[in-house]
Amino acid sequence: MVRSYLIVKGDEIYCSSALGSRTFLLKNYFPDTHVDKPYGLHMSLGTAALPNKPIVYLWVKDHSGRVSGGLATIPLPVNSAQLLVSASAKLTAIAIVIDDKALVTGQHEFQSPSTLPKPLASIESEKYGYRLYFFGKLLTVTSWYEMIFFSLTISMLVMMLIYIYHGKAQDMRSEILRGIREGQFFVVYQPVFNLHTQVMAGFEVLLRWKHPVKGLIPPDQFIAYAEHNGVIIELTKHMFELVAKDAKLMVQHFSPGMKLAVNISAVHLQSEHIIADLTAFRACLPAQHFVCVLEITERVLIKDDAEAERLFKELHDLGFELAIDDFGTGHSALIYLQKHKMDFLKIDKGFIQSIGQETVHTPVLNSILQMATDLSMKVVAEGVETEKQLTYLRRSGVLYAQGYYFSRPLTCEQLLHDVSHTD
Questions:
Q1: Which of 2, 106, 317, 406 has the fewest Cβ atoms within 10 Å of its own Cβ atom?
Q2: Please, which residues have CB within 8 angstroms of residue 192's CB and are 6 or more apart in sequence?
């Protein structure tokens, strides 16, 4: 019944159950949403994915302060209304009116409520902001029962969406904390190769969740929920513990200087405990063996320049290296990179996949590579899958790359097995 759930932060859709952890401008997809209101019910003739399928979308404000709120979309109950009209001896049409839009059974376009003929009867919900107009020849007791039943169905649907939204967020929070306690999370390592020496230079740590009932849950879903429901720091610290345990085995197989890259969320990065947490993590690793790289996504950069400068300097002084992850997918960070010292720039796989295809991404990729050269930043190409992509990156001076061309993400056991057999 529910088509999708979406999390909104500021003016952006930050996460979607349908598309995962991707950022979209709210106004481009759900322009009628007012994020300052506690609830809001609106209509659309469709979405970008399903343009000809009318929907109702419900806005629910989040009062925790972690995010602005959430949206739930459901198919507009036009078919139910049409069935009611067809089965009724007296009703000829039903119009659903939300905001300044009206959709009448049997029609495929919105019209202004002022253009509708006078209804036989109407039912209005002031709380949820919708009206139902019923058209027909004669009002009977049976007609009233039909109208009230349909109206109650709509109201119950809205109330259920609100309940599901709040309940889903709380359930996911509890599930994540239970998963930490019961050891459901594990880490895999995506090898990163030096394109000049053609040897492994390090690996990126990726967190995975194997739920006992639901199986493997996509990381772009559970990480986004963890960020917005206040458990991302606990989840990250649990990941640190898993990595530290594996590192005691890895030290016997990798020479000193191997890069160990971990992702840090915006919430954790701006937490007052970030330095203490990272210092504790590094203290659990074999001394002077791994170089810790902190990957920060472009969309969560600290806006306060003075605060960013202070934090980044402290992290560098402690021996951490910094990488901008998924560059090119969020807000422009060019000025940011000119102000603050970053060690690595990771290019999103979407740009890498455009190599050799002459898409709109191609000139953008060339500009990013030139910018990295000008700023003396080392580049890591993500999602490399073909020899053609590898050749282009080498010719362009890219130093590091990762992707299925080299290796899929591996558990510690798989990684050590591959290394020992290669040796």
A1: 317
A2: 200, 201, 202, 203, 204, 259, 261, 380, 400, 401, 402
Helix-, strand-, coil-residue percentages of the chain, each rounded to 5: 40, 30, 35
- d(Cα 282, Cα 284) in Å, to the nearest integer? 5
In this structure, of 135-139, 140-144, 279-283, 287-291, the range with the lowest mean pLDDT score is: 140-144
Using an 8 Å Cβ cutoff, are 68 and 37 in contact? no
Task: Give the integer Cα–Cα distance in Å for 139 and 32.
Answer: 34
- Residues 22-59: b if buried by 16+ CB within 10 A, e if exposed: ebbebeebbebbeeeeebbbbbbeebeeeeeebbbbbb
Pick the CATH number of 183-422 from 3.40.50.720, 3.20.20.450, 3.90.1150.10, 3.40.50.2300: 3.20.20.450
Question: Do β-strands 12-16 and 24-25 pair in parallel, antiparallel, or remain unpaired?
Answer: antiparallel
CA 324, distance to chain mean position in Å, is 17
Q: Which residue has the higher pLDDT, 354 or 263?
A: 263
Model confidence, pTM: 0.66
Contact 172, 229 (CB under 8 A): yes
| Integer angstrom CA distances of residue 132 from 8, 78, 161, 368 | 29, 12, 19, 53
User: What Cα–Cα distance (Å) separates residue 176 from each residue in 62, 165, 207, 212, 399?
Assistant: 20, 17, 12, 12, 37
For 323-339, the pLDDT digits (tens) are 988 776 554 566 677 77
Place of tokens 């009116």: 97
Q: Where are the domains of the chain?
A: 4-76, 78-159, 183-422
Beta carbons of 36 and 109 less than 8 angstroms apart:
no
